Amino acid sequence: MRSMRFRTMRRAAARGLTLVELVIVITIIGVLTAAISVGVMKAKKTADIGTAKTACNSVKSATLLWKNAHPDQDCPTVDQLKKERFLDTGFLPKDAWGNPYKVACDVDEITCTTAGPDRKEGTEDDIIVPPPAEPGK
User: Fold this and answer.
1) CA 58 – CA 31 distance, rounded (Å)
2) In this structure, what CATH number is given to the domain that contains residue 70?
3) Which residue in 48, 57, 66, 123 could disulfide with 96, CB within 3.0 to 4.6 Å?
4) Is 25 in a helix, a strand, or coil?
């Protein structure tokens, strides 16, 4: 009896996977990969937006320093801030989507903007530092 069970187990182990079992395993792996990649892509977009906001804050701070050093001049460009070393030389002048950072200097406020994920200026997803004030607040 014991040898018969041993022989049956040995035969099952030698047989390997059937084609149906293999297709099921591959399908499960594909479904898991798709589910995970959706979450990863959403997290990457959120991280890219956060990185762009941080970079805009750096540009704004560097522009404040530049304005203090050049009180009689207008607003600098990001390239000018890098050239004069107000921004680190490794600073990338474009966001994660390839849009350039833009600096605008008003009388009392410095604004850094970039077009955001859709690469179109003037849309809802534009990154603006500091964020515009909401109407009524």
Assistant:
1) 41
2) 3.30.700
3) 48
4) helix
Task: Tally Cβ neighbours within 10 Å of residue 106.
Answer: 8
* Domain presence at residue 49: yes
- Give pTM, 2 decimals: 0.72
Structurally, the chain folds into a number of domains equal to: 1
Residue 111 is assigned to a structural domain of this protein: yes
Instruction: Identify whether 93 is part of a domain.
Output: yes
DSSP per-residue string spanning 92-129: -SB-TTSPBPEEEE-SS-EEEEE-TTTT-TTSTT-EEE
Distance of CA 38 to the CA centre of its chain: 14
Asked if 97 contacts 115 with a C-beta cutoff of 8 angstroms, the reply is: yes
